Amino acid sequence: MTAATSILKSGTTLATIAAICTALVAVTYHLTVDRIAANDKALLEQSLQPALSGVFYDSGVSESRLVIEPPHELPGSEAALIYRVYANEEPVAALFVVTARDGFSGPIRILLGVDVDGVVTGIRILRHRETPGLGEKIVSSRSDWVQQFAGRSLGDPTLTGWAIHGDGGEFDQLTGASVTPRAVIKAMRDTLIYFVAHKDEIFAAPATEDES
Amino acid sequence: MSSGGLVERLQAGVWKDNPGLVQLLGLCPLLAVTTTFVNGFGLGVATLFVLTFSNALVSATRRWIRDEIRIPIYVLIIASLVTCIELIFKAWFPMLDRSLGIFIPLIVTNCAIVARAEIFASRNSVGASIVDGIGMGAGFALLLMVIGAFRELLGSASILSDLSMLTGSETFGGLSFADNGLLLLILPPGAFFSLALAVAAKKAIDRKRREQR
Fold first, then answer.
1. DSSP secondary-structure letter at B23?
2. pLDDT band at A70 (very low <50, low <70, confident <90, very high)
3. Is the alpha carbon torsion for A26, A31, A37, A43 positive or negative?
4. Measured between CB atoms, does B32 come within 8 Å of chain A?
5. Contact criterion met (CB below 8 Å) for A186 and A201
6. Using the beta-carbon criterion (under 8 Å), do A22 and B88 form an inter-chain contact?
7. CB distance from A41 to chain B under 8 Å?
8. Nearest-CA distance from A132 to chain B in Å?
9. B66 touches chain A (CB under 8 A)
10. Interface confidence: ipTM more than 0.85
11. What angle do CA B89, B93, B97 make, to 5 degrees?
């Protein structure tokens, strides 16, 4: 066999196998694509739920998304998201997805729910890289730490009270981790300040279209 | 080359030539995801599937694949299978997929899989290769589960804590024995200690067996 036919043969084999493999992936993709999209949407609605405790609403939350591109006055240097929540077409609450930049090991992505009166309806940690067993306890499945914020607002406590006990504030810290709670509380406070200042624009703005 | 009996092949995968314990292959996922039993189980089963199917495909195509292009073909086959598994996980076990994160796509880089394709599947019949894949995959999965259970029990003082990721229902949230465990075991060094203990335990058991004979 000459070199040319040998290369041709190898090339054909490779191309055939590549085509078969691509077909395999394409079929699997078609079988799963709808389920995955439904899962993603359900997961989003479900993950927003805990930040809306006690809020009655009748709107689909995921459709009301507002994307605030940086630079913005909200915490974090990446794009912030705001989901508007309505009941009978009246605004009842807003959900903020913001980033606390000064975590112990990198940024912490936070979901914060605020009702129209500026009262916190719940907070959850969406993404973090804090130390397991220590800073990790900001996550609701690891400890009750995030529960203490529901029902609080900018006047309750006052601005200086939005800090951990160790810094003269009114909120619990975590054993062995004070950097993490400090970062989360600061981001919450700044988000609340933003909400109070921009409330009307937030609810009036049209939803950001998906780019796809 | 003899492929050995069915039982022997399975035994080789699970015990004698266990990819994790003896060949020390695929350590990156092994060390990274075994913080809980459910994580270990999920990645173990995913690896088992990929290994079995990749062995079957490599073996089925072994006669018309020339030596010089075999490696890119293994990579193609394994990468496609992993992509399929990832899509299936995203569709039917979304929570587990989120928990395992990057380690599902990283099954591609698990050298245990290429190693079996090269050492075994490319030289043996489809049937024997499937058995080999199941044996080796089961050996790897069992090791992930044992280490996951060990680290979860001692490190978090709980067991089966993320079971809802597999079943999708919240009826059983696992057992918890204390607020805090031995933190070291959940952190990366704990993975190395646990694996070392597992390797040592296997050697000790083997030696005891030999002495008894």
1. S
2. confident
3. negative
4. no
5. no
6. no
7. no
8. 7
9. yes
10. no
11. 65
Q: Give the torsion through C-alpha atoms of A177, A178, A183, A186, to 10 deg.
A: 150
A14 contact residues in B (CB cutoff 8 A):
69, 72-73, 76
Q: A8 — contact with chain B (CB < 8 Å)?
A: no
Cα–Cα distance measured from residue B122 to residue B109, given in angstroms and rounded to the nearest whole number: 19
- What is the SS3 assignment for A152? coil
Contacts of B69 in chain A (CB under 8 A): 10, 13-14
User: Which of chain A's residues have a Cβ under 8 Å away from the Cβ of B61?
Assistant: 17
CB B90 within 8 Å of CB A34: no
Q: CB neighbours (10 Å) of residue B70?
A: 17
CA A151 to chain B, closest CA, distance in angstroms equals 27
Q: Can you state the angle between helices A3-48 and B70-92, rounded to 10 degrees?
A: 20
Task: Identify the DSSP state of A59.
Answer: S
Q: From the CB of residue B159, how many other CB atoms can be counted at a distance below 10 Å?
A: 17
Check residue B4 and give its pLDDT: 58
The residue type of B167 is T
Which backbone phi and psi does B139 adopt, to 5 degrees?
-60, -45
**Lowest mean per-residue pLDDT among A175-179, A183-187, B121-125:** A175-179
**Residue whose C-alpha is closest to residue B93's, from B32, B168, B35, B172:** B168
Region of residue B178 (phi > 0: left; psi between -120 and 50: alpha; otherwise: beta): beta
Tens of pLDDT, residue by residue over B140-161, are 999 999 999 999 888 877 777 7
Above 90 in pLDDT, residue A144?
A: no
The pair phi, psi for residue B92, each rounded to 5°, is -110, -20
Tokens 């009941």 identify what position?
A87
Give the pLDDT of residue A6.
Answer: 84
Q: Can you tell me the distance from the alpha carbon of B42 to that of B156, in angstroms, rounded to the nearest whole number?
A: 19
Is residue A92 helix, strand or coil? Answer: strand
Judge contact between B4 and B161, C-beta under 8 A.
no
